[in-house]
Amino acid sequence: MPAACDVQPSAAARRAVSRVELARVRAEWHARIGAEYTSAAVTQQLTLWLIQIGAPPDLIEAGLAIVSDELVHSRSSHEVYVAAGGGAPPAIMREQLALARSSAALEVDILRTCLRVFCLGETVAVPLFAHLRAECTEPIARSALDRILVDEVRHREFGWDLLDYLIASGAEPTAIANELPPLLRQVEASYGTGNPVVAADAGAITQVERAWGLAPPREYAAILAECVTRDYVPRFAARDITLAG
Fold first, then answer.
1. What is the CB-side half-sphere exposure of residue 25 using CA atoms within 13 A?
2. DSSP letter, residue 181
3. What is the pLDDT of residue 2?
């Protein structure tokens, strides 16, 4: 669990932010603590699975490096949360910290995790974090997003490198294509117009909130839509995989 830190909100920052704005900033960064911590746990288990199937050491080492990255991201998110006046313990959902095995071969579970977490999740994370960082000027939040964005690029490429290894090891493009529709719906339900929060979002956000690294849900949805055409479709097509909704 992220360790407590001694970061305190700056007087100037607290004066510039209203109580409502500060509450939204705290809620967002508090959620990121748990999300990044969960990513560390999931990647740790995926890496163990890679060891169990005798995957190349380069992939295993890259997976372990991502675990360390995600723990740093969780800690830095906690520091931003505290700087915004937060004091609640991190909300870590234990049931989300493990990958479930299916009745299929381990390689199938690895493929599904690779697609969901990395090829889809980490690929859209790059433009999402770039967008959050673009107008972020609060120093502690900007520092966190600087590090996260640099790391997310490597995490994205790990996913596509792992997919290439799985294809070279026998995963059929048609079978991969068949796995994608429900996974895409999950991403859409999280970030896209399939999320009720997005549908109800009027796009209202203050410049102060943007300065702390926030954006409204409708902007997440727009970034996902662009990512589908700019990243998902051509990257899968390059591997003879047809992306269908």
1. 31
2. H
3. 37
- Is 0.85 surpassed by the pTM of this model? yes
pLDDT at residue 202 is higher than 90? no
Cβ(10)–Cβ(65) below 8 Å: no
For residue 67, give the amino acid letter.
V
CATH superfamily of 11-237: Ferritin, core subunit, four-helix bundle (1.20.1260.10)
Rounded CA separation 74/55 (Å): 28
- The owner of tokens 């991969």 is 176
- How much is the pLDDT for 7? 44
Residue 77: count other Cβ atoms within 10 Å of its Cβ. Answer: 27
**Burial (CB count <10 Å: 0-12, 13-18, 19+), residue 193:** middle
Q: Is 77:137 a contact under the CB 8 Å cutoff?
A: no
Comparison of pLDDT for 211 and 245, the residue scoring more: 211
Residue linked to tokens 């992939």 = 59
Contacts of 119 (CB under 8 A, 6+ apart): 159, 160, 163, 232, 235, 236
